[in-house]
Amino acid sequence: MRNAKAIYTIWLRDLIRFSRERSRIVGLLGQPLLYLLIVGNGFASSFHLPYAPPGTSYLQFMYPGIIGMSVLFTAVFSGISIVWDREFGFLKEVLVAPVPRWTVAIGKTLGGSTVAMIQAAILLILAPFVGVHLSPQIVPAILGILFLIAFALTSFGIFVASRMQSMEGFQMIMNFLIMPLFFLSGALFPLRGLPAWMGYLMRIDPLTYGVDALRNVLFASGPLRAVFVQFPIHVDLLVVTGMALVLVGAATIGFNRQT
Amino acid sequence: MSIVAVEDLVKKFKDLTAVDKVGFTVERGEIFGFLGPNGAGKSTTIQMLATLLKPTGGRAWIDGHDTVREQFAVRQSIGLVFQDPSLDGNLTAMENLDFHARLYNVDPKVLPVRRRELLEMVELSDRTRDLVKTFSGGMKRRLEIARGLLHHPAVLFLDEPTVGLDPQTRNHIWTYIRSLRTKGGVTIFLTTHYMDEAENCDRIAIIDHGQIVALDTPAGLKQMVGKDIVNLTSKNVDRLAGEIAERFGLKGNRLDGQLQLETEQGDLFIPRLLAEVGSAVDSVNLHKPTLDDVFLKLTGRAIREESISAGDAMRTMMKRRLR
């Protein structure tokens, strides 16, 4: 009971902070919008997807990928924000509290996941503009998938943060971890017909399965499913859940070593 | 039973011994001070007592709880105010307190009353809904003191509570600290390198190179140095010296044309002296031993004020850069 209260406390703090940072919310929306508007429209007019039936827009394919990207960035940053808490001293207040460390790690993971889920869900408003039909019944399923991906990625961020001494390594992490995770997730191009080495890398990227799960739900019926979706939904969900469990374990162990 | 008990506490970092067999006890309701230069082992000791660092050797108890084996019980019974602020600037003062209250499981029924009382004490009642990042350094420290008391700890640890604050705010903070004692209940354990602040403590442990070199009341420590010194000037120092020797049995020293007398309780001696030989005295100067003198005598050097303020300035600069 007391542990649940501690988890709730840490979670609540992240939500209060999120609700207060309007400029951050807008800022974090900017990047996916840029990708969708510029990269998406650029690609849409120059290339077309292999095997796609006529009339298919690249934007339709890219849209779930961009939602995945939003989750990726928000979730990983939420996790890494622990480094900021450490530098600004706030982490000490948490570390001396009479609660087990794992409750802090879990609370932080849940907080980051919730924030990332909300942030990505804002992008659902764009569905009609990119030609994706969004029926109200599938929204809960999408939110569930978003939360699951966010949970895995926030854990990943916390794990990374527990190994970082300061924000100085941040650019490295951005270039060598986060961007590759995004590019290899199948957000921008499908897995089919790629060089073998890239195919392997894409298969070990947790985001690949998250984005694929979103496509599974968004294009559940209709001709686009066969072209856009790469794995059955239960495979996607199993892999993301499995990775989430492994990563949250790693995050908790990593966080326990904090001093 | 003592509220804080420490036995042979040792902390080694690789080949550096930061705390070297420290032992002492603190009684309930005391204001107990750790006085020493930076790097003397003050913060390391506090961190071990607060369960943030594991001792290399020795043991410590807070309110009867072992700091290694009963971590959570110890944490629940202490409040901590760190050298550097540990508030969330993006939360309001109230939210920072509520966050703390939940983590320390403060009964929601008593919380509103306690919160109000503490905010009144530190004079922040009118700023409760403001974001903490808009607060000055002194306001942040005051809020942290209120927060540290929110769960009614048995001991409040204050690590350099007034570093980086202006003199007026320092006085304010001391007013709160003293008022806590008169209200009773909480024991205060603080570290400082300011001599004038240490004077406010009931007992002081002087720590240097990881060891306690003296532990006593401020008055007791000063007695170690010697008696009060009374300096007299006179047109005829020789005659004055003779008269004083005759009437008070005190043999003075000549120093720069002055007569220097050593006596106990110089403030009481001067009126008696002037009543007898007042007409021959031009001016009187009383010097009571200070903790500076004590530190100098015990360690052979003055407390390193200059290097300390340089260190503080550095820390403030670093923080500014980070923000």
Rg of Cα set of chain B: 24 Å
Q: Give the quaternary arrangement of the chains.
A: heterodimer
**Corresponding CATH superfamily of the largest domain in chain B:** P-loop containing nucleotide triphosphate hydrolases
Estimate nothing, just give the exact number of structural domains of chain A.
1
What is the topology?
The complex is a heterodimer of chains A (259) and B (323).
Chain A: H1 2-20, H2 22-46, H3 58-87, H4 90-95, H5 101-122, H6 139-163, H7 170-183, H8 196-203, H9 206-218, H10 224-228, H11 233-256
Helix pairs in contact in A: 1-5, 2-3, 3-5, 3-6, 3-9, 5-6, 5-11, 6-9, 6-11, 9-11
Chain B: E1 4-13, E2 16-26, E3 31-35, H1 42-49, E4 57-62, E5 65-66, H2 71-76, E6 78-81, H3 93-103, H4 111-121, H5 137-149, E7 155-159, H6 167-183, E8 187-192, H7 195-198, E9 203-208, E10 211-216, H8 218-225, E11 228-233, H9 237-248, E12 253-255, E13 258-263, H10 266-277, E14 283-287, H11 291-299, H12 305-322
Parallel strand pairs in B: 3-8, 3-9, 6-7, 7-8
Antiparallel strand pairs in B: 1-2, 1-4, 4-5, 9-10, 11-13, 11-14, 12-13
Helix pairs in contact in B: 4-5, 8-11
List keywords for this structure.
heterodimer; A: about 260 residues; mainly alpha; 11 helices; about 75% helix; B: about 325 residues; alpha/beta; Rossmann fold; Alpha-Beta Plaits; six-stranded mixed beta sheet
Structural write-up:
The complex is a heterodimer of chains A (259) and B (323). Chain A has one domain (2-44, 54-256). The model of chain A has no long low-confidence stretch (mean pLDDT 89). Chain A is mainly alpha-helical and 259 residues long. Chain A has helices at 2-20, 22-46, 58-87, 90-95, 101-122, 139-163, 170-183, 196-203, 206-218, 224-228, 233-256. Chain B has three domains: 4-217, Rossmann fold; 227-287, ACT domain (Alpha-Beta Plaits, 2-Layer Sandwich); 292-322, no CATH class. Chain B has twelve helices and 14 strands. The radius of gyration of chain B is 24 Å and the shape is elongated. Chain B starts with a strand and ends with a helix. The model of chain B is unreliable at 306-311 (pLDDT under 50). The chains are: A mainly alpha (259), B alpha/beta (323). The interface between A and B is medium-sized, with 25 and 29 residues.
